C-alpha cells in the first residue's frame, strides 16, 4: 500500500477508489489533507462509515448546481460539515433523498432554522392546507399529487432532524440531541402528517362529518422512532359511510406518503368498525374491553381532525384507564399480554432483540405502564403518556428509588439510541442488533452511537459491553422497580427518597396478584424486621423471590409458606445462604411454594431437601432425579440400626418424608414423568413396609413360629401409587418349626397389627394407612390367613371381584419364597385357563356400574372426577382387567400388574386396536397426573378436580400449563382426553 493509501486507511477510508475521489474533490494533496480541507477529512474520518460518506458526498457534489458554494461551505461551516458528513455515512436512504433533492443541503447549515422549527406547518403547506385553519379544513392538493408533495416534505423534515441528531458524531463540538427530544419531534411530524392526510381526505370526500384521529402507542406518547408504525383510533360524529371513507383515505394517504398507519388498536381490533362515535367507544370500553386495551389507551392523544371531538374522547376514556387496575382480571390480563410479547420473538432473534427481548425496551415500558396504572388512580402526576416523563414522576413520588429511576432512564435512552441508529441506516423498521459475526455492521452502529474505543477494547468491544451492561441493568431493575419499594414501606430500610405508603404498597401487591395485600405486607414486615443478618439477607432476597411468586398460581399461599419455612429454619445456618448464592434454588422454591400446599408442610420437617434444588454439577445428573432403589436400600439399612421399634417406625416415616418431598419437587418442576412418579412413590411404600416389618419381627424372642409375606394389591401391587394412596395388602403366613396353624396365625396377626399401628401413628405427614380390606370376606374376615387357608377359600368361595382384585397382586415385603408360592397359587384364579364365561363378564359389568353409581360422591362432576369419572382411572383399569380375565390364561404376555403394560400387551396381541390402547393410556396418564396434582396443590387426597379459581390454576400449573394462563384450557384438554377414553371403554368393556 502507498503512503497515501496508508494515511487514508488510518482515517477509515479503505476502498481503493478513495484516494482518487478525495484528490479530485480537492480535499487531499500528496499524502495528507489539503490545508483548508483538513476539517472535512477529520469529520469524514469520524463519520459512521467514512467510505459511504465519501461516495455519497461525491454524488451530492456532482448533483448540486452550486457545487463551489457547497464545497466552500464544507470548508468553513462546522455545523454543515458535521451534519452532512455524519448523515451521508449514517443513512443510505436519506443520502439518496439528498442527492435527489440537492438544494436541501442549505437546510443543514449553521444559518438554517433549527430542526423542528416550522416543520409541522411545512407539511400542511405542502398539500395546500392552512396551518392555522380548523382541523377539518380541506387541502388544495388531492390524489397522487398530494401524496407526492407530502412524501417529499416529510422526508425533508426527517432529513434535517436526522442530520442534527447525527451531527455530533462527525463534529464533537456540535450539540447532542437527547433521544427523547428526537422522538418527540418525530411524533410532532407524524401529527402534522396525519393532519395533512385529514385535509387531503376532506378535500377528496367532502361532507359535514366530524372526524378525530387519536394517536396511540409511541406516537401518542410522543416517543416515536424514525421508522415506526403509527397506531391510531378514529372517532366520528356521525360514524357513517362518509366518515368511514375519510378515515380509510387518511390511512392510505399517510401510509403512502410517510409511514405505515395501523388502526388495529381500535375496539374489536381489525374485525371492528374503522370508525365509531364517542358513545360507541365509551360503551365498548365499559362493557367489553380487556386490560391491555386500557394499557394502550394510557398513551391515547388527539392529534388530527376535529380538535373538540378528540378532546372529548380523551376526557371520556381517562377515568376508565385509571380504574383498570381495580378490575378482577387485571393480573391475568397483564400476564397474558406479557406472554404474547414473548411469543412474538423468533428464537433465532431472542438474543438480538432491542425491543421485545429480556432486558429490552418493552421491559421498561411495560414496567412503567404497570406502575402508572396501579398508582396513577390516586396520583395524577403519574399520568403522562411518555415513558421517560412517567418514570421521572414515579421516582419523584417515591414509587421508585431515585437512583433506580435514573439508571433505568439511562438504559432506556441508550437502547432507544441504538434503535434509532439502526432504523436510520436504511430507513427501515428494525429492532435487531447486528449478528455476532457481522463486525462491519457492529462497527458502523458503534460509531453512529458515538461510542469510542476505551484503550482496552476496540469500538465493537465497547458496543458489546455497553449493550450487555444495559440489558442486565434493565433486567435487574425490573425486580427492584416492583418490589424494593414494598420493603421500604414495611421495614426500617434506609431510603434516599420518600417512602412508599402502606396503602400504595398494598395497591401494588394487589395489582401484582396478591388477593390479600394486607396479609402479604404483614409477612414482609415479619421477614424483614430487625437488624439481624437474616433480616438483611431477606431484604436482599425478597425482591427476587416476590417476582418469582408473582408468576406462581397462588402468590398469597406462596408468601405465607415462605414465611413459615423461613421461621422454621431460622436456626439453620445454611438456609438463607443457599437461597442467596444458588439462584436456581430460590427460583424453584418459589414455584413450588406458590403451587403446592404439600411441599411446605413437608419442607419444614425435611429442610435438607432444599439442597437438591440446586443446579446440577456439570457432568452429573440432577439430584432430584435420583434412583428410587438407592433410597429403598438406604432406608432399610438405616432402620435396621434402630433397636427400638418406635424409633425404627419414626425413622422410616422421616426418611419417607424426605423421599416424598424429593419426588413432589421433581414432579412439580417437570423433571419426571407420571410413570416415574408412580414407581418412586410405590418404592417408598414398599421400603417402609419392608423396614417396619423387619423391625417388628426383631422384637420377638426366639425363632418365629411362622413365615409372613405381605402381598401388595391394587395400586401398590401395580407400582402405581399416588401421593395420597393407601397401601392395599394381604397378609399371608405359613407355620414353621413344628408350629400349628393357630400358633402361626396368632403370631402373624400380632406382627401385622403392630406394623399397621406403628405406621398409622399420628403424624403431620400424609397418612401411612395399611389397608387389608381386599382380603377374603373383606374387613369381617381374619386379618391374616395361612397359605393353605387362602388356597381353600379361593377354591371354594372366590367371587369374580376377588379374582379381579388379585390381578395386581405382587410380593412387596416379608418372606420372598412364601410370597412367590402365594402368587403361583392364585395364578389359576386370576388367569383362568379358558377365560371367563358370559355370565361372569355380565356380573363384572354390573359390579362396575354399581360402583360408579354408589361411590361417586354427591355433587361430584363425573366429567372431572379422576377416579370414577368417565374415562378416568377406574374405567381404564377395569377395561384392562376384564381383558386379562378373558385372555391372560391363554396369553402369558398379558400377565402383568401394570395397567399401561397391560394396554400395550393387549394391543400387541390384537385384543385392542392400537389407537384404542393409546386413547386409554392417555386417559389413564392424565387422570393419574391430575389426581396427584390435586394432592400436591391441596395437601390432602382428592379425586375431584377443582371447578375454578386459584386451586384449578395451581393444578393446571402443576401439570405443566403456563403460569397465569387460562386453566380452562387444561379442563378442556382433560375432558377431551377422558371423553375419548370413555368411548373406548363403552365399546370394549361394556360392549356397546
TrEMBL record:
Name assigned to this protein:
Bifunctional glutamine synthetase adenylyltransferase/adenylyl-removing enzyme
Tell me its family: Belongs to the GlnE family.
Q: Specify the enzyme's EC class, one word.
A: transferase
Tell me which species this is from: Pseudonocardia kunmingensis
Task: Enumerate the residue ranges of region (Adenylyl transferase).
Answer: 494-992
What EC number(s) does this enzyme carry? 2.7.7.89, 2.7.7.42
Q: What is the lineage of its organism?
A: Bacteria, Bacillati, Actinomycetota, Actinomycetes, Pseudonocardiales
User: Does Zinc count among this protein's keywords?
Assistant: no
Q: Where are the transmembrane segments?
A: none
Biological function: Involved in the regulation of glutamine synthetase GlnA, a key enzyme in the process to assimilate ammonia. When cellular nitrogen levels are high, the C-terminal adenylyl transferase (AT) inactivates GlnA by covalent transfer of an adenylyl group from ATP to specific tyrosine residue of GlnA, thus reducing its activity. Conversely, when nitrogen levels are low, the N-terminal adenylyl removase (AR) activates GlnA by removing the adenylyl group by phosphorolysis, increasing its activity.
Single Gene Ontology BP annotation: regulation of glutamine family amino acid metabolic process
The source's superkingdom equals Bacteria
Q: Name one GO cellular component term.
A: cytosol
Its keywords, alphabetically, are: ATP-binding, Ligase, Magnesium, Multifunctional enzyme, Nucleotide-binding, Nucleotidyltransferase, Transferase
Annotated PII-uridylyltransferase/Glutamine-synthetase adenylyltransferase domain ranges read 336-482, 846-989
Q: Name the cofactor(s).
A: Mg(2+)
Show the segment(s) annotated as Adenylyl removase.
Answer: 1-486
Q: Name one GO molecular function term.
A: magnesium ion binding
Query: Domain Glutamate-ammonia ligase adenylyltransferase repeated spans what residues?
Result: 83-313, 587-824
Signal peptide: which range, if any? none
The UniProt entry, under InterPro entries, shows:
GlnE (IPR023057), GlnE_rpt_dom (IPR005190), NT_sf (IPR043519), PII_UdlTrfase/GS_AdlTrfase (IPR013546)
- Reaction catalysed by this chain? [glutamine synthetase]-O(4)-(5'-adenylyl)-L-tyrosine + phosphate = [glutamine synthetase]-L-tyrosine + ADP; [glutamine synthetase]-L-tyrosine + ATP = [glutamine synthetase]-O(4)-(5'-adenylyl)-L-tyrosine + diphosphate
Amino acid at each position: 500500500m502507498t503512503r497515501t493509501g496508508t494515511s487514508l486507511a488510518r482515517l477509515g477510508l479503505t476502498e481503493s477508489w478513495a484516494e482518487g475521489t478525495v484528490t479530485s474533490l480537492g480535499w487531499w494533496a500528496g499524502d495528507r489533507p489539503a490545508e483548508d480541507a483538513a476539517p472535512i477529512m477529520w469529520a469524514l474520518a469520524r463519520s459512521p462509515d467514512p467510505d459511504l460518506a465519501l461516495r455519497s458526498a461525491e454524488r451530492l457534489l456532482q448533483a448540486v448546481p452550486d457545487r463551489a458554494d457547497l464545497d466552500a461551505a464544507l470548508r468553513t461551516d462546522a455545523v454543515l460539515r458535521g451534519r452532512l458528513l455524519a448523515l451521508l455515512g449514517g443513512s443510505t436512504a436519506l443520502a439518496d433523498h439528498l442527492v435527489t433533492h440537492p438544494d436541501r443541503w442549505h437546510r443543514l447549515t449553521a444559518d438554517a432554522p433549527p430542526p423542528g422549527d416550522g416543520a409541522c406547518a411545512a407539511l400542511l403547506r405542502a398539500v395546500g392546507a392552512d396551518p392555522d385553519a380548523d382541523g377539518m379544513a380541506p387541502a388544495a392538493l388531492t390524489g397522487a399529487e398530494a401524496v407526492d408533495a407530502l412524501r417529499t416534505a416529510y422526508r425533508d423534515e426527517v432529513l434535517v432532524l436526522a442530520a442534527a441528531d447525527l451531527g455530533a458524531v462527525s463534529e464533537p463540538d456540535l450539540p447532542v440531541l437527547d433521544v427523547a427530544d428526537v422522538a418527540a419531534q418525530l411524533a410532532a411530524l407524524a401529527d402534522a402528517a396525519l393532519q395533512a392526510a385529514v385535509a387531503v381526505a376532506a378535500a377528496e370526500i367532502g361532507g359535514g362529518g366530524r372526524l378525530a384521529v387519536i394517536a396511540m402507542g409511541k406516537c401518542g406518547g410522543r416517543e416515536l422512532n424514525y421508522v415506526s408504525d403509527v397506531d391510531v383510533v378514529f372517532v366520528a360524529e356521525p360514524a357513517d359511510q362518509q366518515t368511514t371513507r375519510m378515515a380509510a383515505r387518511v390511512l392510505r394517504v399517510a401510509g403512502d406518503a410517510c409511514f405505515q398507519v395501523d388502526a388495529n388498536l381500535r375496539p374489536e381490533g381489525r374485525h371492528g368498525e374503522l370508525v365509531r362515535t364517542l358513545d360507541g367507544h365509551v360503551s365498548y370500553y365499559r362493557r367489553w374491553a380487556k386490560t391491555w386495551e386500557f394499557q394502550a389507551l394510557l398513551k391515547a392523544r388527539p392529534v388530527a381532525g376535529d380538535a373538540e371531538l378528540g378532546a372529548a374522547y380523551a376526557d371520556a376514556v381517562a377515568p376508565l384507564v385509571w380504574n383498570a387496575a381495580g378490575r378482577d382480571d387485571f393480573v391475568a390480563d397483564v400476564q397474558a399480554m406479557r406472554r404474547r410479547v414473548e411469543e412474538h420473538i423468533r428464537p433465532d432473534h431472542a438474543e438480538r432483540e432491542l425491543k421485545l427481548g429480556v432486558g429490552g425496551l418493552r421491559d421498561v415500558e411495560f414496567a412503567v405502564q404497570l406502575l402508572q396504572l396501579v398508582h396513577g388512580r390516586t396520583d395524577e402526576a403519574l399520568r403522562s403518556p411518555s415513558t421517560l416523563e412517567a418514570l421521572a414522576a414515579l421516582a419523584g413520588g417515591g414509587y421508585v428509588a431515585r437512583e433506580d429511576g435514573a439508571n433505568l432512564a439511562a438504559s432506556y435512552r441508550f437502547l432507544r439510541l441504538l434503535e434509532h441508529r439502526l432504523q436510520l441506516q436504511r430507513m427501515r423498521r428494525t429492532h435487531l442488533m447486528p449478528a455476532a459475526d457481522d463486525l462491519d455492521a457492529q462497527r458502523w452502529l458503534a460509531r453512529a452511537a458515538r461510542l469510542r474505543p476505551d484503550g482496552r477494547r476496540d469500538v465493537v468491544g465497547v458496543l458489546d459491553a455497553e449493550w450487555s451492561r444495559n440489558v442486565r441493568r434493565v433486567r435487574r431493575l425490573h425486580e427492584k422497580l416492583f418490589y424494593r419499594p414494598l420493603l421500604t414501606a414495611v421495614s426500617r430500610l434506609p431510603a434516599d427518597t420518600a417512602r412508599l405508603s402502606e396503602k400504595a404498597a398494598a395497591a401494588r401487591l394487589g395489582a401484582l396478584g396478591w388477593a390479600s395485600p394486607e396479609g402479604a405486607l404483614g409477612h414482609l414486615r415479619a421477614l424483614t424486621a430487625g437488624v439481624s443478618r437474616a433480616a438483611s439477607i431477606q431484604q436482599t432476597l425478597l425482591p427476587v423471590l416476590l417476582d418469582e411468586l408473582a408468576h406462581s398460581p397462588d402468590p398469597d399461599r406462596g408468601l405465607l409458606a415462605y414465611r413459615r419455612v423461613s421461621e422454621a429454619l431460622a436456626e439453620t445456618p445454611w438456609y438463607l445462604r443457599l437461597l442467596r448464592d444458588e439462584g436456581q434454588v430460590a427460583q424453584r422454591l418459589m414455584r413450588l411454594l406458590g403451587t403446592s400446599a404439600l411441599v411446605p408442610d413437608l419442607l419444614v420437617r425435611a429442610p435438607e431437601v432444599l439442597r437438591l434444588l440446586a443446579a446440577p454439577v456439570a457432568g452429573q445428573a440432577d439430584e432430584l432425579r435420583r434412583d428410587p432403589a438407592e433410597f429403598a436400600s438406604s432406608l432399610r439399612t438405616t432402620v435396621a440400626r434402630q433397636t427400638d421399634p418406635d424409633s425404627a417406625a419414626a425413622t422410616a416415616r422421616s426418611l419417607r418424608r424426605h423421599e416424598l418431598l424429593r419426588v413432589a419437587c421433581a414432579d412439580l418442576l417437570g423433571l419426571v414423568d407420571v410413570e416415574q412418579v408412580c414407581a418412586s412413590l410405590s418404592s417408598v411404600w414398599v421400603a417402609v413396609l419392608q423396614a417396619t416389618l423387619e423391625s417388628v419381627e426383631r422384637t420377638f424372642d426366639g425363632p418365629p413360629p411362622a413365615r409372613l409375606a405381605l402381598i401388595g394389591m391394587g395400586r401398590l401391587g401395580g407400582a402405581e401409587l399416588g401421593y395420597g394412596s393407601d397401601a392395599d395388602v394381604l397378609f399371608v403366613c405359613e407355620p414353621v418349626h413344628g408350629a400349628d396353624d393357630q400358633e402361626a396365625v396368632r403370631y402373624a396377626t400380632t406382627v401385622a397389627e403392630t406394623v399397621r399401628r406403628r405406621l398409622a401413628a399420628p403424624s403431620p405427614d400424609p397418612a401411612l394407612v395399611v389397608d387389608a380390606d381386599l382380603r377374603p370376606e373383606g374387613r369381617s374376615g381374619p386379618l391374616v390367613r395361612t397359605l393353605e387357608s387362602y388356597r381353600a377359600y379361593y377354591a371354594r368361595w372366590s367371587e369374580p371381584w376377588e379374582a379381579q382384585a388379585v390381578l395386581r397382586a405382587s410380593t412387596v415385603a416379608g418372606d420372598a419364597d412364601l410370597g412367590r408360592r402365594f402368587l403361583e397359587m392364585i395364578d389359576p384364579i386370576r388367569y383362568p385357563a379358558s377365560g371367563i364365561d358370559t355370565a361372569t363378564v355380565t356380573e363384572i359389568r354390573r359390579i362396575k356400574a354399581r360402583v360408579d353409581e354408589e361411590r361417586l360422591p354427591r355433587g361430584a362432576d363425573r366429567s372431572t372426577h379422576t377416579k370414577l369419572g368417565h374415562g378416568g382411572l377406574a374405567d381404564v383399569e377395569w377395561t384392562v382387567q376384564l381383558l386379562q380375565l378373558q385372555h391372560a390364561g391363554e396369553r402369558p404376555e398379558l400377565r402383568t400388574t401394570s395397567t399401561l403394560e397391560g394396554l400395550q400387551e393387549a394391543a400387541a396381541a390384537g385384543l385392542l386396536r392400537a389407537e384404542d390402547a393409546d386413547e386409554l393410556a392417555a386417559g389413564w396418564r392424565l387422570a393419574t397426573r391430575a389426581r396427584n396434582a390435586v394432592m400436591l396443590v391441596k395437601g390432602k387426597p382428592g379425586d375431584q378436580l377443582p371447578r375454578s379459581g386459584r386451586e384449578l390454576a395451581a393444578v393446571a400449573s402443576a401439570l405443566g400449563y403456563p403460569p397465569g394462563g387460562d386453566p380452562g384450557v387444561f379442563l378442556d384438554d382433560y375432558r377431551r382426553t377422558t371423553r375419548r377414553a370413555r368411548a373406548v371403554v363403552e365399546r370394549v368393556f361394556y360392549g356397546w
